[in-house]
Amino acid sequence: MIKALFLIFSPGATWRNIAEARRGPALILGFYLLPMLLLVAAAEGFGLMHWGTLQVLSGVVKKLTVNEAVVYETAQSLLTLLIIAVCTFLIKSFGETFHSRHKFTQAFTVMAYGLSPLFLLRLLDMFPTINPWLTWTIGIMLTVKIFYNGVPCVMQTDPTHALGLYFMSSLVVVALMGAERFFTWWYLTGHFLPLAKSVSEFAARLPF
Questions:
Q1: Please, what is the Cα angle at 152 between 151 and 154, to 5 degrees?
Q2: Does residue 101 register a pLDDT over 70?
Q3: pTM
């Protein structure tokens, strides 16, 4: 969480420290990305259980049970990890189109740390009075902002190609993370009734 704040307010120096640390994907995943996702899931899950979410079609507020919240937050976290993996491979491929050889570790580092502002703002999603699209918009804008320093620093791109790689990386991240936000928001507001029913039935069979 502190690293996310440093990336927002001091992106240049923070990215240099991240690049110099040369941490592998396993360390980044285990000691930074997963704890961040767990914190976000716990906060949002608490909000869904305590305050609930407005079902647009019926006009009622639905509070999730503990089991439903666990299933939803687990699915959302796995979807986020899948998108991060896809973006990582795409960013690595984009770099190679600019006649540069980039490692998976470099692209994953950019993604894992670059999305920090988005995860930080998602903590506010626990409050039902805050529009989830507002938190997403601010978070993705900050992500694109810190990508400007992170992509050339971590990917070590040739200066003549850095802007192109930054633009392509930002575009794919905005598109895929936006799609995730739309799908989860659509589900929580009651537009996927058959899916919600299946989730509730599955959650009811969980042993806790």
A1: 70
A2: no
A3: 0.93
